[in-house]
Amino acid sequence: MALQSITLQLDVRSWPLKIPFRITGHVFDSLDLLVCTLSCDGVTGQGEAAGVYYHDETAESLRAQIEAVRPAIEAGIDRADLQDLLPAGGARNALDCALWALESRRGRRAAWQLAGLAPPQPLLTTFTLGADLPAVMAERAAGLPKARALKLKLIGDGHDAERVAAVRHARPHVWLGVDANQAFDRAATEALLPALVEARVDLLEQPCRIGEEESLRGLDCPIPLAADESVQTRRELESLVDLFDAVNIKLDKCGGLTEALAMAHRARALGLRVMVGNMIGTSLSCAPAFVVGQLCDIVDLDGPWHLAGDVAPAVDYLDGYLHCPAGLWDHAGAGP
After folding, report:
1. Which residues is 151 bridged to in the sheet?
2. Which of the residues 18, 151, 250, 253 is marked catalytic?
3. Can you provide one Gene Ontology molecular function annotated for this UniProt record (predicted)?
4. How does pLDDT run across 258-271, given as a tens digit for each residue?
């Protein structure tokens, strides 16, 4: 049901990272995030978005998108209306998550209840290491003794096999995934595979460029393949069934918690493994993704861990698991 007389507030907040974070084609040392606050009847709900960098989204461009539809929002809108009002992406994500939080707090029911899920449990999450010299990545991996799962960024510069070998030597028993962020073509993927197999890599994420997914057809790859950039919303899922083993759902890509939950259910029905990830963001971004994580096989929700600071209250990382305190973003109690 659409809400009446909503007040919309948009703020851009800047957050420095602990250390520069390098992936294929980009180095991040700080992040601007858009925070959307919706108020109705004295109750507020918030959503946060970074946007999708490879779609050239920025916090300011997200704000401009939302400002363009401010009259429709403040006249009263619900999550179903929003799916038609804005396309998938960071702007819709910020609004969608704010609407979830607002509905949760007004109705005094947690988001997981609204989604029809079981009470949430802590999630084993990966911790991602940005691309760097192999010895540096190994040192960072060794410095995370509580992490049970690591993900390495690979960049196709000829040193990726060394990176993977160095980290595996430093952490011989950890679950290990690698993410190329579109760095490879098929030939480069095939050339690297023996090193990945030798290092007992558990997941290979997005080796190919967007639009070149068919190049993976027939690839003799004993390591499960996950799509990230190649899957934005439910629309791409069926086309990826014979090419990938898993899909990485991110709220900034798909446009919010509403679509993310629908994607998780649809992917599972298609026989795909389900992964949830996030762009780097605060705990305000992580909390709604934590809800999706309850449906997932693989969880990569370490965004707040990369930041030099965070909102309060905040998620916590204990013994390799992500804990999200009740009431961080939505209503705290179980309700009626």
Report:
1. 128, 177
2. 250
3. metal ion binding
4. 999 999 999 999 99
